[in-house]
Design brief:
Elements: H1 2-10, H2 14-17, E1 26-29, H3 37-44, E2 53-57, E3 75-79, H4 87-91, E4 95-97, H5 105-110, E5 118-123, E6 131-133, H6 141-147, E7 150-155, E8 167-169, E9 175-178, H7 199-209, E10 217-220, H8 224-231, E11 240-246, H9 248-255, E12 271-276, H10 280-286, E13 292-294, H11 297-300, H12 303-307, E14 312-317, E15 320-322, E16 327-328, E17 331-332, E18 335-336, H13 343-351, E19 357-361, E20 365-366, E21 371-372, E22 374-375, E23 393-396, E24 399-402, H14 408-417, H15 421-433
Parallel strand pairs: 1-2, 1-5, 2-3, 3-4, 5-7, 7-9, 10-11, 10-14, 11-12, 12-13, 14-19, 15-22, 19-23
Antiparallel strand pairs: 6-8, 15-16, 17-18, 20-21, 23-24
Helix pairs in contact: 7-8, 14-15
Length: about 425
């Protein structure tokens, strides 16, 4: 077990480890609930010694102290997907954002189009062969760690041991920082059918569930609507999972026997995912569980892999959809809000699947019915994430419509049918003015 001697020789404190970060470096941070807060705090603690450090990552949970205005000129963040903790810095011009398909990110690291100097990762303890699990998220982190010049790993005994293509060997880690801490959590939304506040997501969930047949394989994102859809799947049979992420709601359906993965065309009997955003319930579920295979993003989000699943159902959300079917999902006008993520990867994969169902699900309004999310035109400056040629099903609380193979006139009519009644006259007037009626 020579790797064990190697491991012991790499153990140092967090403060010592982050001395490997130099001015002008690009530092990658393990995203999601795997964010290595202990290492991040140590890095920020060196702020007086550094300048022009580019901190790059996808969505992270927890704080992002390096985006504070007091660190301007010291740290600058590059967001591959904007989170709540970095949004203000991006929109104030103190951080950058990159429009990029999640599938494409690993290639940027591997081909050194975006070279990584230091990767801060958060993994479990080594097994008897010296392999550490990436735990709650492998995502794009495997590619970043394998491409980085220096890898600093927070070794945490509370990190679950996720199986699959989800390991890094001790010999590939530069510095080991042992630190035990609870893994960050993202609780699932709790639904009460009697609560008016949950009425809209539950109605969207019900309409969406009607499009999901027994034996389907699912991908869905994060938030209230995906949780509401899961809530309505209790009567389905033999569902499968191939998704970039999942949460507590999926665990419930596995335990209830709804998700069996037995009808999947590939990886039969296995759930395949890139990361989880959940609570200890999910972490305990994935720990050493052979039914789950964690795989890196370049595999999970590969359109060709997705399309190999018969009856692939991709469920994604939007900020607004215009009457031609264009989907804006990453900005509110010119204000950047999130990112591309895997929406297009899975929408296109599901469209090419035999019996596949690509879905965009969103509430019909925002801010207590003040604004329609089915709009004549996207807001000035808004970006198109999913093109109108890619869009198939659109679902609101008022129903579900399929735009695929429909003309502009037919699309407008269908989308108005699932818009909030308060805005239908306005939408119909626009259609008439544009000679689409």
């Amino acid at each position: 077990m020579r790797w064990l001697d190697n491991y012991h020789g790499k153990r140092i404190s967090a403060d010592e480890a982050v001395k490997a970060i130099n001015s002008g470096n690009r530092v990658y941070i393990h995203p999601g609930c795997a964010s290595p807060i202990f290492l991040i705090e140590a890095m920020v603690g060196r702020s007086t010694e550094l300048q022009d450090v580019d901190v790059i990552h996808v969505l992270t949970m927890g704080d992002a102290p390096y985006t504070d205005s007091k660190y301007e000129g010291i740290f600058r963040h590059t967001a591959l997907f904007i989170g709540h903790n970095t949004r203000q810095a991006v929109n104030e011009g103190r951080a950058d954002a990159m429009p990029i398909f999640l599938y494409d990110i690993p290639g940027l690291f591997k081909e050194r189009i975006i070279p990584i100097d230091v990767a801060l990762i958060h993994v479990g303890p080594p097994d008897e062969h010296g392999f550490c699990s990436y735990g709650v998220g492998i995502d794009v982190t495997k590619a970043a760690a394998e491409s980085a010049k220096i890898v600093i790993a927070q070794i945490n005994p509370k990190m679950p041991r996720a199986l699959g293509d989800s390991f890094i060997h001790v010999n590939k880690i530069t510095h080991v920082v042992e630190h035990e801490a609870d893994i960050l959590e993202m609780p699932q939304f709790t639904f009460d059918p009697g609560d008016p506040a949950t009425r809209v997501p539950l109605q969207i969930g019900e309409h969406t569930a009607d499009l999901i047949g027994d034996g389907s394989t699912l991908q869905m994102g994060i938030g209230t609507i995906p949780d509401a859809i899961l809530y309505h799947l209790q009567d389905k049979k033999d569902l499968g999972i191939h998704t970039e992420m999942f949460s507590d709601g999926v665990v419930d359906l596995v335990e209830d026997g709804v998700i069996t993965n037995e009808k999947k065309t590939i990886h039969t009997g296995k759930m395949v995912a890139g990361f989880v955003l959940g609570t200890k319930k999910t972490y305990d579920f994935i720990d050493n569980n052979p039914v789950i295979e964690f795989r890196p993003t370049e595999y999970v989000n590969d359109v060709l892999v997705i399309a190999r699943h018969d009856k692939m159902v991709a469920i994604n959300s939007a900020i607004e959809v215009d009457l031609t079917g264009q989907v804006c999902a990453d900005s509110i006008g010119t204000r950047l809000f999130s990112g591309f993520g895997g929406q297009v990867d899975f929408i296109r994969g599901a469209a090419r699947s035999k019996g596949g169902v690509p879905i965009i699900a969103l509430p019909s309004t925002v801010k207590n019915d003040s604004f329609s999310r089915i709009v004549p035109q996207l807001k000035p400056g808004a970006g198109v994430v999913t093109s109108r040629a890619d869009v198939h099903w659109v679902v609101t609380e008022y129903g579900a419509v399929n735009l695929h193979g429909k003309t502009f006139r037919e699309r407008a009519k269908l989308l108005i049918s699932i818009a909030h009644p308060k805005f239908k006259d306005e939408l119909e007037k626009y259609v008439k003015d544009q000679h689409l009626a």
